[in-house]
Amino acid sequence: MSIRVFDFRCDAGHSNEMFVESDTISIQCPSCGKIAHRQIAAPRAQLDGCSGDFPGEALKWEKRRESHMAFERKNQERHGTYR
Questions:
Q1: How far apart, in whole angstroms, are the C-alpha atoms of residue 1 and residue 54?
Q2: Cβ-contact 9, 29 below 8 angstroms
């Protein structure tokens, strides 16, 4: 078995994070000595709107697009419109 960190909570309301084997479902609470049961933890994930991309990627695209548009405007002022 692998050792991982899990959240445990006892009946007295103490919450603790402990490194235990992945099949461990209860431990003795280090604060009060009662039995503490493993809690289900929500995964940390953040997706951007409807696209499913990570938020950083959408911001990078927006900055690259703005930079490209500024370059095109500057180029058009110097050389006119290409057709």
A1: 32
A2: no
